[in-house]
Design brief:
Layout lengths: L1 E10 L2 E11 L4 E5 L6 H9 L6 E6 L2 E2 L5 H7 L1 E4 L11 H11 L5 H10 L16 H14 L4 E5 L7 H16 L4 E5 L3 H7 L2 E6 L2 E7 L5 H8 L2
Parallel strand pairs: 3-8, 3-9, 6-7, 7-8
Antiparallel strand pairs: 1-2, 1-4, 4-5, 9-10
Helix pairs in contact: 3-5, 4-5
Length: 231
């Protein structure tokens, strides 16, 4: 589904990615692990086309999309939910979803209904302005907005960070359902190691702007991954 090949990215003169390579198999859920500041979010942004690269390639379904704009990557079937849960705070929950729907080519109302099925907490607050939602509600809305595009691949950057415990489980369950029930491919940056390894089919560990280990989660012990992250 996704192949990140020797990607190199810099902020000004400071290089952040040093030839990062990673593959996300079709229909799989890959978790990207690593300490803060090792380049995980930069890798996600570069994959989405939000950061310029000076080396390497991004391939989606076998096609080189390195030169495509973020909007064209969305049309190809990639959705991105960044940290920060950005949205349209002045619009209602319903209108947040409708704005995204109107920007899609399919424009099928059923896409909104399917997203709300995964996040039923949003249904009673469809008329509420997004700016007045709790952190957990905003995160659910952010993922729902991404799903309205009917993507083939979703990039999720730490979706449970700073979320109240009562909502974390719901978000985790929704992520599992997105992958297992619909076959949606997911690249997930997640700090909760136990959850990440339990939900993921594959994993990648990042350190100093490179992927230092990757493989099937069934073939690796949690203690091994903890040691890698602690490097």
């Amino acid at each position: 589904m996704l192949q990140i090949d020797n990607l190199q990215v810099a902020y000004g003169r400071t290089q952040v990615l040093f030839g990062a390579s990673l593959e996300v198999p079709t229909d799989s859920l890959m978790v990207l692990l690593g300490r803060n500041g090792v380049g995980k979010s930069t890798l996600m942004k570069a994959t989405m086309g939000l950061m310029k690269t000076f080396g390497g390639r991004v391939l989606f379904e076998g096609e080189d999309i390195t030169g495509l704009t973020p909007s064209k990557r969305v049309k190809r079937g990639i959705a991105y939910v960044p940290q920060g849960r950005e949205g349209f705070p002045q619009l209602s929950v319903r209108d947040n979803l409708k704005v995204v729907l109107e920007a899609t080519e399919h424009k099928q109302q059923s896409a909104i209904d399917e997203a709300l099925d995964l996040f039923p907490r949003l249904v009673p607050i469809l008329g509420r302005d997004a700016g007045f939602l709790s952190g957990g509600q905003k995160q659910q809305l952010a993922i729902a907005r991404a799903l309205v595009t009917r993507p083939k691949l979703v990039l999720l950057d730490e979706p449970t960070e700073g979320i109240q415990p009562s909502i974390i489980t719901e978000i985790e369950d929704a992520i599992a359902a997105m992958n297992k029930a619909s076959g949606l491919s997911i690249l997930l940056v997640e700090q909760h190691l136990e959850f990440a390894l339990s939900i993921g089919d594959h994993y990648g560990v990042m350190e100093h702007g490179e992927i230092i280990s990757s493989g099937a989660t069934a073939d690796v012990a949690e203690s091994t991954v903890r040691d890698l992250i602690a490097v």
